[in-house]
């Protein structure tokens, strides 16, 4: 850790001794701005000090999580470490302190497909077909690894610089075995199937 209580890396500190004391850094990454917020986490845009590559860093406040939710966070990390697909956000690195978790991931610079649709309206059929093919390919890959996302929605479908799909946020993801069905009620209510609200399986 650095002297100001932030996660640091000695190999990066020496090359950036000219930075002012207020300079915010996590490991070898310079924090720039907030690009997302949740109940127990905030997502920051950051730049790798040496390579200048842009990344997203999800900062989780462990002190705000009970034992069950902390278990889910570590499961999310475990799942993301296993997944390597061109249309799934990549997890590059995980760092932690006593109170914080830092998940360094690929940055999808074109944002959510939800915001894209709000700004530009519905997609042309050809464009929608390409996006749908990418989503199906990523979901099929997850299922082949016995992983279910369980919260697929427009807000969790990100777009990279080339407007390609990147599935994000595996906070509700879980493993399944064989033909066993997962019965936990989770996800986002606006996207849930009607039978879930009726208490049906």
Architecture overview:
The chain has helices spanning 10-13, 67-82, 113-120, 125-144, 194-197, and strands at residues 25-26, 29-37, 41-48, 54-61, 91-96, 100-106, 147-148, 157-159, 165-167, 174-175. It is α+β, with helices and mostly antiparallel strands and 201 residues long. It folds into two domains: 25-106, 2-Layer Sandwich (Phosphorylase Kinase, domain 1), CATH 3.30.200.20; 111-196, Transferase(Phosphotransferase), domain 1, CATH 1.10.510.10. A six-stranded antiparallel β-sheet has the order 1-2-3-4-6-5, covered by helices on one side. Strands 7-10 form a two-stranded antiparallel ribbon. It is globular and about 50 Å long.
Descriptive tags:
201 residues; alpha+beta; Phosphorylase Kinase, domain 1; Transferase(Phosphotransferase), domain 1; six-stranded antiparallel β-sheet; two-stranded antiparallel sheet; 5 helices; 10 strands; globular; disordered N terminus
Task: Write the H/E string, N to C.
Answer: HEEEEHEEHHEEEEH
Q: Percent range for helical residues?
A: 25-40%
What is the CATH topology assignment of the largest domain? Transferase(Phosphotransferase), domain 1
Annotation, overall tally of beta strands: 10
CATH class of the largest domain: Mainly Alpha
Spatial order of the strands forming the largest sheet: 1-2-3-4-6-5
Q: What structural class is derived from the secondary structure elements?
A: alpha+beta
Strand content: 15-25%
Taking pLDDT < 50 over at least 5 consecutive residues as the criterion, the unreliable ranges are 1-8
Shape: globular
Q: Please tell me the overall pLDDT.
A: 86
The number of helical segments is 5
- CATH homologous superfamily assignment of the largest domain: Transferase(Phosphotransferase) domain 1
Separation of the first and last Cα atoms = 48 Å
Q: Evaluate the radius of gyration.
A: 19 Å
Q: Based on the structure given, which CATH architecture of the largest domain is correct?
A: Orthogonal Bundle
Keywords: ATP-binding, Kinase, Nucleotide-binding, Serine/threonine-protein kinase, Transferase
Catalytic activity: L-seryl-[protein] + ATP = O-phospho-L-seryl-[protein] + ADP + H(+); L-threonyl-[protein] + ATP = O-phospho-L-threonyl-[protein] + ADP + H(+)
InterPro entries: Kinase-like_dom_sf, Prot_kinase_dom, Protein_kinase_ATP_BS, Ser/Thr_kinase_AS
EC number: 2.7.11.1
């Amino acid at each position: 850790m650095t002297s100001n209580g932030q996660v640091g890396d000695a190999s990066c500190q020496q090359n950036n001794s000219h930075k002012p004391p207020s300079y915010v850094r996590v490991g070898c990454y310079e924090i720039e701005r907030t690009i997302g917020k949740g109940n127990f986490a905030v997502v920051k845009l950051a730049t790798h000090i040496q390579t200048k590559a842009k990344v997203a860093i999800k900062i989780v406040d462990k002190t705000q999580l009970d034992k069950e939710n902390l278990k889910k966070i570590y499961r999310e990390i475990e799942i993301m470490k296993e997944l390597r697909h061109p249309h799934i956000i990549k997890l590059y690195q995980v760092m932690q302190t006593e109170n914080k978790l830092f998940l360094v991931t690929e940055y999808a610079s074109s944002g959510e497909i939800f915001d894209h649709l709000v700004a530009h309206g519905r997609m042309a059929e050809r464009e929608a077909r390409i996006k749908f093919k990418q989503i199906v390919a990523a979901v099929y890959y997850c299922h082949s690894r016995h992983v279910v996302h369980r919260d697929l929605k427009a807000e969790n479908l990100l777009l990279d610089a080339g407007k390609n799909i990147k599935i994000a946020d595996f906070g509700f993801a879980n493993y399944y075995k064989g033909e066993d069905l997962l019965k936990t009620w989770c996800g986002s209510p606006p996207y849930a199937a009607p039978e879930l609200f009726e208490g049906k399986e």
